[in-house]
Specification:
By secondary structure, the chain is α/β, with parallel strands linked by helices. It has one domain: TIM Barrel (Alpha-Beta Barrel). Helix content is 41%, strand content 15%. It is built from nine helices and twelve strands. The strands form three sheets. Strands 1-12-9-8-6-4-3-2 form an eight-stranded parallel beta sheet. Strands 5-7 form a two-stranded antiparallel ribbon. α3 runs parallel beside α4 and α4 packs across α5. The longest helix is centred in the first third of the chain and has 21 residues. Bound molecules: zinc ion (ZN) (2 copies). The site of one zinc ion has 4 residues, from loops.
């Protein structure tokens, strides 16, 4: 059975996501632990935590991934930003442990022009200093579109981080990011090549999550602009192959499609569901 969901907002309370997920037809989901454009972490009350844990035990909605906030940059050459980012991920880890969740998705970050090498080293150091705070939590490194100075658009970057950090990180694919980074997941041959290369460098077992997003930007454009499923450059046939691929179909898939009024989350989910098994 596929694990399929959309990124959900906890604005109305953390345990509200279960009803929200059910009404949309999700059996897994992803959330921000707090407003993603803020460093502030509101701590849920004891009641809220209790209710969340009760629902999490009784509902078949799992995994629930936590996505880092947009401000975090573990590759930053700026000491203050680096330190704040590190603190932020520590808080994410506390939040995850409080709720009994396992995965935190992070973007490797930006070296801000100071070079890939320094950026990669900063990320490894950051992960190493997080290692005492994880207690069984798993950090997932998300593949990025590779806009200027952004690390994580090449499997080589992820390999470096995984090989050099004491933390055993997993990986999250984002189909839009892969495509705009130059991995042609829209074609049959491109998808096979991408997965073969990932498997030989990192190992398909390390892949723990797939963000399903179509791409507004062209192949290799490094443009990070998500599109509704099938309406972008990856296209319906591309997604049909992705969701049914033998290496991918058992991985949780989460949509982060735009909120532009063109199509609802439920409609995007239904499009994905219509592709499952129809190869
Ligand atoms: Zn992301
Ligand atoms: Zn993503």
């Amino acid at each position: 059975m596929h694990r399929l969901g959309v990124h959900l907002s906890i604005a109305k309370g953390i345990s509200r996501i279960f009803d929200l997920a059910k009404s949309l037809g999700c059996n897994c989901t992803q959330i921000f632990s707090h407003s993603p454009r803020s460093w502030k972490f509101p701590i849920p009350t004891e009641e809220e935590v209790k209710e969340f844990r009760r629902r999490y035990r009784s509902e078949d909605i799992r995994p629930i991934f936590i996505h880092q906030s947009y401000l975090v940059n573990l590759a930053s050459p700026n000491k203050e930003v680096y330190q704040r980012s590190l603190e932020s991920i520590k808080r994410e880890a506390e939040f995850a442990k409080l709720l009994g969740l396992r995965y935190i998705v992070i973007h490797p970050g930006s070296h801000l022009g100071k070079g890939e090498k320094l950026g990669l080293k900063n990320i490894v150091n950051a992960l190493d200093s997080l290692s005492d705070h994880l207690d069984g939590l798993e950090i997932l490194l998300e593949t990025t579109a590779g806009a200027r100075n952004i690390i994580g658009s090449r499997f080589e970057h992820l390999t470096y981080i995984i090989e050099n950090s004491v933390v055993a990180c997993g990986v999250a694919f984002d189909t839009c990011h892969l495509y705009s980074a130059g991995y042609d997941v829209s074609s049959e041959e491109g998808l096979e090549d991408t997965l073969r290369s990932f498997d030989s460098m990192i190992g398909i077992k390390k892949l723990k999550l797939i963000h399903l997003n179509d791409s507004k930007g062209e192949l290799g454009s490094n443009i990070d602009r998500h599109e509704h499923i099938g309406l972008g450059r990856i296209g319906l046939e591309g997604f049909r192959r992705v969701v049914n691929h033998r290496h991918l179909k058992d991985k949780p898939m989460i949509l982060e499609t735009p909120m532009d009024g063109k199509r609802s989350d439920k409609e995007n989910l239904d499009v994905v569901k219509s592709l499952i098994g129809s190869l």
